[in-house]
Amino acid sequence: MVQDRTQPGGDAQASLAQTARRFRLGLFLPYILLALLVVAWSVAWFWIRGRAATEIDGWIAREAAAGRTWTCADRSLTGYPFRIELRCSAVTLDRSDGRFRLGPSTAVAQVYQPRLVLFESAGPFHVEQGALTGDASWSKLQGSIHGASDGFTRASLVVDGPNVTVTGADPGPIAVAGQHLELHARPTPGRYESEGAVDVSLRLAQAAVPQLDALTGNPAPADLSLDATLTQATVLRTGPVPRELERWRQAGGTLDLTALSLAKGDQRVQAKGTLALDDTHRPVGQLDLRAAGVDALIGSVVGQRFGSEKGALVGQLVGGLLGLGRQPDRDAPAGAAPLKPLPPLKFVNGRIVFSGFPIPNLYLPVLY
């Protein structure tokens, strides 16, 4: 009887072939899984992109129904694989009281952090509202909005080289240029839900304002800082300014100035207080003031009416009566005049009242 000696060898070869196939499968499995992950992520990104486009279209439609027409020229949504990037060659807003236009702009959100939106714009910005025409340009503008389910947690705007001009204003054109501007806002802890309060912080460095130079007789650039709380801010929308201001007034909105500071050379003014709008749509409230070097400012203002020499003498006299003379002060910067308290500045019935007396020939404007 002859035995089959080929069978054991055949089993060995089959086993080796099966092992080789498993080895090749294990070798390529990570690449296969990676390819499946890429495909799944791509499908998810395009779904998110479509959802974002739908949300944008829905918001534009709701704004249009409210009388506000937004246009994003040459709109594109890109950013694959980890961002959603909205680009517009121009952004325009048309509504009943005017037209607003912003140059090329970009907004970006990370897919894994969609509530944080970063934006930037090359500008310029142009607005036409009634008789007023405004233009703004800058060297760099960036901002961010941290969203939340019930509003936002923080919003910021940073601008380098801001330059703003407004024409059509009374008594004449307004021009403001600066080196750097920052604006930050956040919900006021403990007051946002009940009062709709928002904390605002503004900083403007090295500002050149020709109208302010002419008023003060001081060509030095100005530094402005403002810390304030705006109550009932949540009632404000993107509608016409008169309607929004009236809605804010009727809601009992106030502007609580925690710290307002203006420094221009050796002239410095600080203020705090509360402002609102009265029934005639004029500012109403009171500011508590501290100042240094305003004797020269008073002399400049009075000098425009009575001559520079007499005006300077009157300014020095008033400054001395108010206790604003240059005296040593531990809190004052080296070489700077000390800050001294002034009588409160009140806004009442369209008049500006200083030290209990209305300032002659000076009336508060109707804002809307």
How are the SSEs placed, and which strands pair?
Blueprint: H1 6-65, E1 69-73, E2 76-78, E3 83-88, E4 90-95, E5 98-102, E6 105-110, E7 113-121, E8 125-129, E9 132-137, E10 140-148, E11 151-160, E12 163-167, E13 174-177, E14 180-187, H2 192-195, E15 198-207, H3 210-216, E16 222-230, H4 241-250, E17 255-264, E18 267-277, E19 283-292, H5 294-306, H6 308-321, E20 340-341, E21 345-348, E22 351-354, E23 357-363
Antiparallel strand pairs: 1-4, 2-3, 3-6, 4-5, 5-8, 6-7, 7-10, 8-9, 9-12, 10-11, 11-14, 12-13, 14-15, 15-16, 16-17, 17-18, 18-19, 19-20, 19-21, 21-22, 22-23
Descriptive overview:
- With 368 residues, the protein is α+β, with helices and mostly antiparallel strands.
- It has two domains: 159 residues, no CATH class; 185 residues, no CATH class.
- Helices cover 29% and strands 42% of the residues.
- It contains six helices and 23 strands.
- It has a 16-stranded antiparallel beta sheet that branches. A seven-stranded antiparallel beta sheet has the order 1-4-5-8-9-12-13.
- A hairpin with a 2-residue loop joins strand 4 and strand 5.
- The radius of gyration is 32 Å and the shape is elongated.
- The termini are far apart.
- About 2% of the residues have low confidence.
Low-confidence runs of at least 5 consecutive residues? 324-329
* Largest β sheet strand count, sense and barrel closure: 16 strands, antiparallel
Mean pLDDT comes to 85
Rg over CA atoms, rounded to whole Å, is: 32 Å
Tell me, what's the shape?
elongated
**Would you count the extended β strands for me?**
23
Distance between the termini: 118 Å
Strand content: 35-45%
Q: Topology as H/E string? A: HEEEEEEEEEEEEEEHEHEHEEEHHEEEE
Helical content (DSSP H or I, runs of 4+) = 25-40%
Helix/strand class? alpha+beta
Number of domains: 2
Total count of helical runs of at least 4 residues:
6
